[in-house]
């Protein structure tokens, strides 16, 4: 028997989760951590040593990032037997960075086997080189030639001039 006021109802079928077993596995991104012995270096002074570490990356590629299309000349990678400086890339670990002029630079590191896989960055501040101290209060009482040896030190590297301290 059929009633005249019967209504037809469409009951939606429950949604089924997509079958992910057929999808290719997605690579797990590599994590690269960067540590440094310095956050600030003097221009032309001691280098900063940056070390990369990772649970999955074994070979690291370093470079200085470009700013506005130009290499950041505030610091350089130090490499080679003569200590040549450049922007990289260079494959090594650790890497040595020397400040060239006051400012900051961003050093990037990536997985050498796949440089687009992951990039870690580290920002290093570069300050002006400290001026060589030319005089001290003690020098007013001693000339450099008469300065007691325990209070006399050379000015700069390889200089014969000395100051009293």
Please write the string of helix (H) and strand (E) elements. Answer: EEEEEEEEEEEEEE
In total, the number of strands is 14
Biggest sheet character: 5 strands, antiparallel
The assigned structural class equals: mainly beta
- Number of helix segments? 0
Query: Mind telling me which CATH architecture of one domain this is?
Result: Sandwich
Under CATH at level 1, the class of one domain stands as Mainly Beta
**Amino- and carboxy-terminal Cα gap:** 116 Å
- Enumerate the spans where pLDDT stays under 50 for 5 or more consecutive residues: 132-145, 156-160
- Summarize model confidence as the mean pLDDT: 71
Shape: globular
What proportion of the residues form beta strands (DSSP E)? 35-45%
Query: Any idea of the CATH topology of one domain?
Result: Immunoglobulin-like
Percentage of residues assigned to helices? under 10%
If strands are numbered along the chain, what order do they take across the biggest sheet?
A: 1-3-10-7-8
As a whole number of angstroms, the C-alpha radius of gyration is 31 Å
């Amino acid at each position: 028997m059929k009633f005249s006021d019967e209504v037809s109802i469409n009951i939606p079928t429950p949604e089924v989760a997509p079958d992910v077993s057929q999808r290719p596995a997605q690579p797990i991104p590599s994590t690269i951590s960067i540590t440094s012995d310095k956050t600030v270096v003097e221009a032309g002074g001691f280098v900063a040593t940056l070390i990369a570490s990772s649970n999955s990356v074994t070979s690291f590629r370093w470079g200085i990032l470009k700013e506005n299309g130009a290499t950041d000349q505030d610091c350089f990678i130090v490499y080679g037997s003569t200590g040549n400086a450049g922007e990289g890339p260079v494959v090594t670990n650790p890497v040595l960075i020397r400040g060239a002029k006051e400012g900051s630079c961003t050093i990037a590191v990536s997985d050498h086997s796949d440089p687009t896989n992951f990039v870690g960055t580290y920002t290093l501040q570069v300050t002006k080189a400290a001026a060589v101290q030319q005089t001290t209060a003690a020098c007013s009482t001693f000339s450099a030639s008469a300065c007691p040896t325990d209070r006399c030190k050379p000015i700069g590297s390889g200089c014969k001039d000395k100051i009293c301290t």
